[in-house]
Amino acid sequence: MADPQSVDFYRFSRNLSDEERSVRDTVRRFVEQSFMLDIRRHFADGTFPVEIIPELGAMGLLGPSIHGPGCAGLSATIYGLICQELEWGDSGLRSFASVQGSLVMWPIATYGSDEQKNTWLPELAAGRKIGCFGLTEADHGSDPGGMETRAVRDGDGWVLNGSKLWITNANMSDVAVVWARCDEGVVGFLVERGVDGFSTNTIHGKYSLRASDTGELVFDEVRLPESSRLPDARGLKAPLACLNQARYGIAWGVVGAAIDCYETALRYAQERKQFDKPIAGFQLVQQKLVTMLTEIVKAQGLCQQLGRLKDDGINEVPMVSLAKRNNVAMALDCARTARDILGAAGITDEFSPGRHMANLESVKTYEGTHDIHTLIVGAEITGLPAYR
Amino acid sequence: MKIAVCVTQVPDSETRINLAAPASELDQSGFTRVLNPYDAFAVEEAVQIKERLGADCEITAITIGGDKVLETIKKDCLAVGCDKAIRVNDDAMIGADSMQVAKVLAAIIKRDGYDLVLAGKQTIDGDSGQVGPMLAEYLDCGHASVVTKLELADGTFTATREIEGGAEIVTGTLPAVITCQKGLNEPRLPSLPNIMKAGMKPQETVTCADLGIDVPPAHTTITTYTPPAPRAACRIVENEDPAAAAKELARLLRDEAKVI
């Protein structure tokens, strides 16, 4: 078994409880046993291994930090460690869990009615039902406030029209958390598969997140009862708060991808001989490895502190933005450097860094682009929002 | 039914042992310690038996070791389904040989009384494979080692043992000691909620004195660890005609290497 402690240069594991370390090691073993054998095939075919979903549920990995019926209510740090180990496997796997937990279960637990919570949370936690989150539209990415999807009151219910794009889990979802504009502002709905006028489409030809279901949600005169609206979600800040949960998991997750890249590059450099010695013995290669390790250690420090703050109830958007921005860029740099160290071997799917590198291009863009997170932190420290 | 599962911690199989020259001790500071993989089959078998029998079954994990073993006990035994744990923590047992281990385990098992004792067929560090059979001797009960299938019925067991070139089916009466081999089952991973609850299960720590026994004397001592001899250089059969090269390779494998 690969050892998750192996890239723990600063002994962050000492700050974890026995239980936290056990969760981390168990998730790593799970990913190795249940996911890694088939990831190359799924990435090549552009498919998500759906058979792993009930296993994720049985292990308690879906929405583990959510408080609600059928949910474990564990710490933010544990949720972070889970994301790290899932993304050590593939960003597509972590994306599935992020969407299910942070973008579907979290808004239901936070904004939903008791009936919605009781209906959906146990099923979603067990992996018997799959959810997706519809906020982004074709013409409204970084500026979701400009959304064109409309909800209009119709007697006791609503009529929904519009579409959502770049939606993870779109085609395999049983329920969509959908955000739409109405006269009073932004409102959220739970839209079940099978409702008249609701359809989904697959996005083909992706270079990135190939082992992930990405698609479009289309709403054509979809009639919804008032009971499908999330009653406590008011305004755009409701979906943005969901994203803050998911970004937190991304900040941790990408560290896992970076660790896999670093370890792969290190092993390769120690074995690959040129000029009669392992290339790890050359100064330029050592500099690359040390830079990767240094950046991973710094990112691990950010995550650990962010996790403890979140557990203490401090979950400020700019702090999460800083970590998401830094860590994703860090992981992408690690993937590129690892690919470089691997030489020609790095361009094939024999080795993981090329796959991580392609995936992380999506991760850099989704859930708030790198640039938008720069502006969120920029607005925080200057008091001058650049995007208004 | 009361089931005892005897477990121990071993260095992870990917541990790199840095040994430049023969030494009397290994530097273990960098070792990652995990549950002995064969013991995982024993834990899983116990949990599956409990699942079949229902609540009328209690599983106790028994181990010998310092504080480092606690995390393994929680994660790989209590979180997986063992009900409680007993640990012998006695400085005098550091580096104990198989007979010392078997005697101390026997003292606990005699004290509490168990219907079935499960253990791994061997550890992957010491590799002696002796503790299970010795334990059965000290308990004066039957045993079956290297078991790949186990059935229990009304105070008896039927065990399929892996033997050279085939299988051997052994029946006997309980209590008995069964040592477990790969193939017996597929060890499960613990779920998160069970990991979190594991720490709340009862854990008892005892010394040999608490068990009312003297620390048994060692019968063997490890004197030297030596690194394996460096591998000889590879020989390449060079012949432009593939058929002739294959013939030559087969001849070398038969006449020189004597492996075919």
What does this entry look like structurally?
The complex is a heterodimer of chains A (388) and B (260). Chain A has 388 residues and is of the alpha+beta class. Chain A has 3 domains: 12-126, Acyl-CoA dehydrogenase/oxidase, N-terminal domain (Butyryl-Coa Dehydrogenase, subunit A, domain 1, Orthogonal Bundle), CATH 1.10.540.10; 131-228, Beta Barrel (Butyryl-CoA Dehydrogenase, subunit A, domain 2); 237-382, Butyryl-CoA Dehydrogenase, subunit A, domain 3, CATH 1.20.140.10. Chain A has helices at residues 18-34, 39-45, 52-59, 76-89, 91-111, 114-126, 237-271, 283-311, 317-341, 353-365, 370-382; strands at 131-134, 150-154, 157-168, 175-182, 185-192, 198-202, 214-224, 273-274, 277-278. In chain A, the strands form 3 sheets. Chain A has a 4-stranded antiparallel sheet, covered by helices on one side. The mean pLDDT of chain A is 96. By secondary structure, chain B is an alpha/beta fold. Chain B folds into 2 domains: 2-12 and 22-206, HUPs (Rossmann fold); 228-260, no CATH class. Chain B is built from 6 helices and 11 strands. In chain B, strands 9-8-7-10-6-1-4-5-11 form a 9-stranded mixed sheet, with helices on both faces. In chain B, helix 3 packs across helix 4. The longest helix of chain B has 17 residues, at 37-53. Classes of the chains: A alpha+beta (388), B alpha/beta (260). The A-B interface holds A 1-3, 5, 18-19, 21-23, 25-26, 29-30, 33, 58-61, 64, 72, 74, 78, 82 and B 12-14, 32, 34, 70-71, 74-75, 79, 189-193, 195-196, 198-199.
Quick overview of this protein structure:
The complex is a heterodimer of chains A (388) and B (260). Chain A has eleven helices and nine strands.
By oligomeric state, this entry counts as heterodimer
Number of helices of chain B: 6
Number of strands of chain B: 11
Taken from the alpha-carbon principal axes, the silhouette of chain A is: globular
CATH class of the largest domain in chain B: Alpha Beta
Report the sheet with the most strands of chain A, covering strand number, pairing sense and barrel closure: 4 strands, antiparallel
Structural class of chain A: alpha+beta
Low-confidence stretches of chain B: none
Taking all residues together, what is the mean pLDDT of chain A?
96
> Which regions of chain A are unreliable across 5 or more consecutive residues at pLDDT < 50?
none
Order of helices and strands of chain B: EEEHEHEHEHEEEEHEH
Counting structural domains of chain B, the number is 2
CATH structural architecture of the largest domain in chain A:
Up-down Bundle
User: Hey, which two chains have the biggest interface?
Assistant: A-B, 23 and 19 residues
- Rg of chain B, nearest Å: 22 Å
Q: Element order, helices and strands of chain A?
A: HHHHHHEEEEEEEHEEHHHH
Second-tier CATH architecture of the largest domain in chain B: 3-Layer(aba) Sandwich
Characterize the biggest β-sheet of chain B.
9 strands, mixed
Radius of gyration of chain A: 21 Å
Average pLDDT, all residues of chain B:
92
